[in-house]
Amino acid sequence: MSVLVLGETDQTSLVSIDEVETLASTHNITIPPSELQDWADLLSGMNSCAKKVLALPDYYPPVDVTLYPRTDIHRPSGDEETDYGGWATKATIKCIQPKSDELKGKTLAIKDAIAVAGIKCGNGIGGKVGGWIPNVDATLVTRILDAGGLILGKSACEAGCLVAVSDTSNTGNVHNPYAYGYSTGGSSSGSARLVSTGQVDMAIGTDQGGSTRKPSANCGVVCIKPTWGLVPYTGCLSLEATLDHAGPIARNVQDCATLLEVIAGSDGIDDRQPYSWPQGHVKFGEELKKFLNNQMTSEKPLTGIKVGILLEGFPSKITDSNVSAASKCAISKLAELGAQVKEISIPFYKDSGLVWMVGMAMPAATQCLLSNPSGRKQLLFTDRCELSGPTLTQENFDALGPGAQNVYLRGLFLQERFGSPLHARCTNLRQKLSDEYDLALKDVNVLVMPTCVFPPGKIEPKGGKSLGPLKMLSRTIGIPYNTAPFSSSGHPALNLPVGFVPARDDKDVWLPTGLQIVGSKFDDLTVLKVAASWEKANDWKTMRFSGH
């Protein structure tokens, strides 16, 4: 590193030789005695410069609360007002001079891991970090308001956005809309529930391992995890930058496409994004509407579309037979709509979840839990970094809950035991997986498999944390089997409700199940067309699968 300036060192910035020696020994290096004073002077200059930088005013995109007023901000209480756990915070947020009417008349909820200025962004946890109130709106929030959408509040999410069951949020349990006491899935639990129950028309979730698709499958709603980088993540709490996605949840494919059209496109801030994809580059909602209204293809709208059944997406040891039957029935109906259907095998897919789980731990411990995504060019939250600290305090660790605690301890353990070679191996293997998906998608237009390979189970009435870490986390094994691989690779992946299956512990309880449709990167529109064609021709709520 070149030295631009040494800085005029004041007495409060002096670094002693003893401090240099302590710093070096802590990190297992030795500095020759003849160089100690040199390093003390250099670090003193850097200390002074750092203090001067911190004295400069911070910079955030300004929020005009006159143009985007927010009123009636409050924490709801009781089952009815929270919609049985769906709401974290209620409010009324709108734009008084919208730029378009694309979302006119539509109500929305924003996941409580996304910044809305002046409203607590709890991320499902307690403590000081869970009390953070941002002073900025996420890019996608501004775009929704500019399109005439009415935001009614923040939806509950699971603790740290790191749990796949819906009993870990500090705002309370989130109940499945079709069966009280059962999980919605996580971590975008509130977003999926609020759309399903009709509290809102649409919602935004975030997804690093299936956090929009799993709850959508369990709640009977549509969602698309867009291609990585298609939707700006600016203003959303990062878990791991190369896994971060934000996307729409709605009751039908058309609404999903319209919301994606509004929020997609580069914002010039988020380095996950291609700069060549401006907002409105693809009119997802408009193009989908034209496709569905085309009378020439109304009977066989999927003629020319090739669908690949991913064989490894139906693992025999853990896939519920009724879920498998529902997905295979849905796939057969794609063929009836004109699609060519064939089986596809990607053997390495079986290891994709392992690579995702191990590879996420080290960077997530730093980027997510310590608010320190070093090396990224994006909007960072200085005030939240101060609440997190360079390492977790006991208070912050206790506030996380077992899911986030698990990621933190795993990250520390793997860093100490294996270090960067392990993360490098995982990163390279993720590329191998992505390349294999790309190769398969040269042969077919989309891949299909169950979104979740078994229906959701019951939630713990006292909250998942009361079970202890092992029992609580053991319940999540297998849930992200088919969702995590495409968070890793960045391919667009959509959940489409395709019927009901009985709960594993009670055959009289019927729960939604979904088909996952995966496409080539930045070909999200084809994924939407396939899903919308099936949805137009079928009523999933009349379909039940049992006894298989």
CA distance, first residue to last residue: 64 Å
Percent helix, as a range, is 25-40%
The low-pLDDT segments are none
Average pLDDT works out at 95
Class by alpha and beta content: alpha/beta
Total DSSP E strands: 14
Supply the number of helical segments.
Answer: 18
Q: What overall geometry do the principal axes of the alpha carbons give?
A: globular
Can you give a write-up of this model?
With 548 residues, the protein is α/β, with parallel strands linked by helices. The chain contains 18 helices and 14 strands. The strands form two sheets. Strands 1-2-4-3-7-9-8-13-14-12-10-11 form a twelve-stranded mixed sheet, sandwiched between helices. It starts with 16 loop residues before the first helix and ends in an 11-residue tail after the last helix.
What key attributes describe this structure?
about 550 residues; alpha/beta; twelve-stranded mixed beta sheet; 14 strands; about 15% strand; globular
